[in-house]
Amino acid sequence: MDLGAPRQRCVLAALAVDAGKVVPVDRLVGRVWGAAAAPRARTTLHSYVSRLRRAVAAIGGLAIEYRSGGYVLLGDEIDLLKFHDLRARARAGDTAGLLTEALALWRAEALTGLDGEWAREERDRLEQERLAASHELVDARLAVGGGGELVAELAARVASHPLNERVAHQYLLALHRAGRGTDALEHYRRIRERLRAELGAEPSVPLRELHQRILVADPRLTAAPPLPVVPRQLPSEPTTFVGRQEELDRLDAAVTGTVLISAIAGTGGIGKTSLALRWAHRNAGRFADGQLYIDLRGFSPAEEPMDAGEALGGLLHALAVEPGRIPADVQSRSALFRSLVAGRRMVLVLDNAASTGQVVPLLPGSELCTVLVTSRNRLPGLVTRYAAEHLVLSELADADARALLAGRLGAGRLEAEPEAADRLIALCGGFPLALSIVIAHAQIRRGLPLAVLAAELRDAVIDVLDNEEPSASLPAVLSWSLRALCPRQRAAFALLGTAPGPDIGLAAAARLLGVARAQARQVLRALEEASLLYQDVPGRWRMHGLVRAYAATVAQDLPAPVREEATGRVLGHYLEAARAADRTMDRLRFPPPIDHVVPDAHVDPVPDDQAAQAWFEAEFACLVAAQQSALDQHSHAVAWLLAWSTTTFMARRGLVHARLAMWRIAAEAAVHLRNKAVLASTEHMTGSAHVVLGHHETAVEHLHRALALADPVHLAGVHYSLGVAWGPRDARQAFKHARHALALYRAMGTREWEARTLAQMSWLTAFLGRLDEARSFSRVALALHREQGYRTGEATMLACLGFVAHESGCYEESVEHYEQAIAVVRELGHLHGLADGLERMGHTLVALGRHSHAETAWREALGIYLQRGMEAETQRVQRLLAG
């Protein structure tokens, strides 16, 4: 291809030596025309470039572009770029092959036919690059035992470079390996004399050492090079590994993609090492150049975490590096390690790491190496800086836990005691180490029934899972995680083990720990990083049951006042927060008969009904546990008030059994409060809970005891509840109580409760068939509820109007009222009211012939009744669906 005049070709050469980089116009002019360039040189340059653009475009894969004051040659088909790339890759592996390929790109002297100072200097520089690559190729061939076949090539090179000691060194070694030791010694004599004569210097130390070794016929000069060491360091594969298929698949996907590092995190004893070894053994065939393993002692019973220097020393030793060749400093060791594994397909398991900083110096630089890191810490630095695949292990599924037990104990033993096996699985909570310890107990004590072992585990779980051998002791294994925590974090871990409920939110944690929320968040984050806590729901932290049991034992080492004050703070928090949410849900409710001042209580405002309900949903299990804890701590007022403050929520959500259970605990607390009004309210609330469960006789018995104890203020409420209790069985009796309640409320001037009682009377008159009276009561009560903003009451009256319309034969009007009521209770999350409305509307839909719509409504109602454990209602709707 004609590239034009010499200077035009020189422009292309000036761009090619810096291919991929912008060459400024002034530099191009200097390279082509030199320092004495004519004023028109820039114009001529642009003309040359224009012609060259057309010429290189015809080649394909090349282009010249103008960018920010200069030109750049782009393309993948530039020999110099290929040469540099091959030479760089040769340093990482397959040295001889890549260098041979690189040198084959040189077809003649560089920049042939070009003249000028820059061209001459660049030609010399490129020739030095080619010569250096030639030297490197000879070194590579000598390193793998070459010699005799290199003599002719090196003889010519020695003639061209008589004072180059590197070439002389190569030539001497090649002659010796070719069996020409005498010629080698003679050549050494000649080069020594020439160095003295022309440079006044002796040969270099390496050349003199080689001469001496040839003199003594050192056998290592001709020995075949050692084969690369292929380490096989993986510990034995876990023989009882079960489950974890999803995690194994994720590790497979990471390796087949672009991820080179996988960080496996989790609590001590959860099975991180087993997973890493299982995967590494299953995939050993992928790593023909070896498998490396090192325990970094990040969490060890007796030793400090291994420093990176020691770890690198172990890895280099595994790669057969002689002790004298191992550098002293970490940086140099790390560089040598990367060099040795470059280009080799290897897997490196870094087990039990303490931190990202401990791991980073041990990471290979090669894309062919895969690294598995296990740690109790989450190691976020590996994820953010090195794009590691982050995998957090949780407990085993029940089926996998059962498979582990059956595999070690035999399926027959589990089948002989199925209930005991179920209890063992539940008590171990899918924790592999706990399951293994239980298996060891069962194997060592062969005559011990599984039921006895399950009972021991239930009564003293931490004691049963302890052992004199630390690695077989769950408390010991978990204690190693605490060593990495500061004293404040260890104390927080212990206190969190005593917190009531299955999990904890930030506000409650801050009160438990007695710190500001920002500090509490830092502590929770640190414990989560250490895999001692986890968030299954954002903003809510929980411990595995066994970790929690261990934390509770650690808490016993704290001073009793510290534990008691922490419990008092968190119980006070739950009470105050429940009070605030309850006031938002039912602002018309009468205050409780007692008060309890919580010192330093600061709870978040609850802006609306939806926020109150969301808070109760998140905290309900904790409130139930907090009530029991308060009773155990003899905080009787707190225990009683927690039941009071949670009742509205439980009623709305249809938590009928929990409601009765909380009031039974409240009744125990009430005995100690010695307050008549509290006892009256307890009987009242307990009776109301029995009403919802359909326990009529028991409910009426409690409510009549409440009548006998109640003061005038609370008497109306008891009559109101008796009206509810009698309503389904004897509407006339119920109406008497409702009318009595209405008179009392009107005497007290409480229009809100007057409206509620009118609503009750609306239903009762409807049940009695007095439909016009019921419609009138309903409309008055509906107007009052809307005026007061009482949405629950509004929904109740809309449902009542729907019932009245149905009984009047106005079915379309009935459906319209029911749909309005259902829309309100859906918005409020009032599940009991929703199920009741759906059930009633189903009857009206049947009357209209809309049987499929009725079935849909009844099925939704059935789901709610089943979820809430409401047996009578469930059976009733099942009969409707079956009929």
TrEMBL record:
Q: Which InterPro entries match?
A: AfsR-DnrI-RedD_regulator, BTAD, OmpR/PhoB-type_DNA-bd, P-loop_NTPase, Sig_transdc_resp-reg_C-effctor, TPR-like_helical_dom_sf, TPR_rpt, WH-like_DNA-bd_sf
Any one GO molecular-function label of the UniProt entry: ADP binding
Asked if the record carries the keyword Transcription regulation, the reply is yes
Q: Which GO terms describe its biological process?
A: phosphorelay signal transduction system; regulation of DNA-templated transcription
According to the entry, DNA is bound by residues in 1-75
One Pfam family from the UniProt entry?
A: Trans_reg_C
| Keywords of the record | DNA-binding, Transcription, Transcription regulation
Where's the OmpR/PhoB-type domain? 1-75
State the family named in the UniProt similarity comment for this chain.
Answer: Belongs to the AfsR/DnrI/RedD regulatory family.
* Protein name listed in UniProt: DNA-binding transcriptional activator of the SARP family
**Which species is the source of this protein?**
Lentzea flaviverrucosa
